[in-house]
């Protein structure tokens, strides 16, 4: 606190203006009457109405949500398993290769991941569509999930699991009734992260999609290459709104759960 | 048995969908372009079983590598990607450090809120965050309007479709990756160290360089790698904000694949890009390892 000078205050202000102003401008101009996006011509919601009529965008949005739901669910299951194996799995044959495979996709450039998956799908003669995008998204997001979940697994007290085993639980029961409730916040966070990554992905989806399965980012990308349009501003505003509400709700819920869990642990320790 | 299944499922998934596809890319980088479907040869013939796989991997052709090293378009693209990624990383550090520093100095009850404000844009669509700058940087964009309006410039500046726009785009989208590790390193810092340095006769600037900077070092290194590694293979930012002369390897690979339909050359571009990336990735891993050891 001692050194919170004008310099620090300026850095924070300038930093946050830089981070938020572009999106605020986007939101404001989505309510612009004029088609000319840089000239303000009065308030209007007509671009939202027009967006709702645009079936191409709505179809793409539906494909995106479907892909996001399935890939993040699969990624959460696989990623939690991978995290458990890495933290609690002990030694097994090919462990180094395993952790390499979990971390490598995180640093792999998207263009390479996309290209390699596409060449793979063609080599095994799998038609490109929703299924191939789900497979592609699951593969890279499960790695993010496993990083999030394993950081929680590392930090929690292993003796709780051991106690459950000593009291006669099978390893699966111990996982379900002791480990899972404790790591649940990180599993949920992992799911949300995987879902966002999937909704957001342009490059890998472009490689993995077929003509009948255009996702929203692919659609947006081809539209914005031609410049700024008010419809895309409106669409962006809706997406920013959903994310903001989602993230704030999730963090409030998580805060409450963490507080409750801490209280429980404290009570358990005292009792 | 259960343990075996638990290990086998994620293991096989990653092996089949990450390692095998990558081996195919490596193999196709040694193939030749052919007017066929798929457009390369020799092709994998699974109908003959294991012999087909063996034949597929037996015939290697180094022509693409010779072509890439011989053609200066590719050299220039790799070098210019490296240059853009380096400059952008440095700029991100310049912008990110003061933010991280100020966050670490803020009152404790404010910090979770500030963290949230840094992370929130990261959850918003990357594509939309890049798109937002098209409207700002264009010749008739908000920035030019503002500067013309207050009389700072007489004629609109060309920023969009230049490398400057690419730098702005990278700094903007990767800023959280720089701020968070530096903040994490500085947050642990004990303010009494600075007081001690000043009591011992350091000026504030000296105390900064002697105490704060070394403590922030691991965070700075981590942040720089987290920005540098993804921006090297970046595709979206150069193709939306950059101009026709912005040469970045991610864009070259994309065009080689989608426009020229030369899959073997695209694969070769990918393999070489990865070879270049291995060095920073290993250095990053080392830094993380060292950090874990000093923390633990």
Automatic annotation (TrEMBL), chain A:
Q: Which residues cross the membrane?
A: 12-31, 67-85, 97-124, 130-154, 174-194, 232-253
Q: Does the keyword Transmembrane helix apply?
A: yes
Q: Which protein family is it in?
A: Belongs to the binding-protein-dependent transport system permease family. CysTW subfamily.
Could you give a single Gene Ontology term from the biological process aspect?
transmembrane transport
Q: Which UniProt keywords apply?
A: Cell membrane, Membrane, Transmembrane, Transmembrane helix, Transport
Record-annotated ABC transmembrane type-1 domain positions = 61-253
UniProt cross-references to Pfam families, sorted A to Z: BPD_transp_1
Q: Does the keyword Iron apply?
A: no
Q: State the compartments where it is located.
A: Cell membrane
Q: What membrane topology was assigned to this protein in its record? A: Multi-pass membrane protein
Q: Which organism is it from?
A: Yoonia ponticola
**Name of the protein:** Putrescine transport system permease protein
Automatic annotation (TrEMBL), chain B:
| InterPro entries, alphabetized | MetI-like (IPR000515), MetI-like_sf (IPR035906)
GO CC annotation, single: plasma membrane
PROSITE patterns per UniProt: ABC_TM1
UniProt domain ABC transmembrane type-1: residue ranges = 78-284
The processes (GO biological process) annotated in the record are:
transmembrane transport
Quote the PANTHER family the UniProt record gives.
Answer: INNER MEMBRANE ABC TRANSPORTER PERMEASE PROTEIN YDCU-RELATED-RELATED, PUTRESCINE TRANSPORT SYSTEM PERMEASE PROTEIN POTH
Q: Under what name is this protein listed?
A: Putrescine transport system permease protein
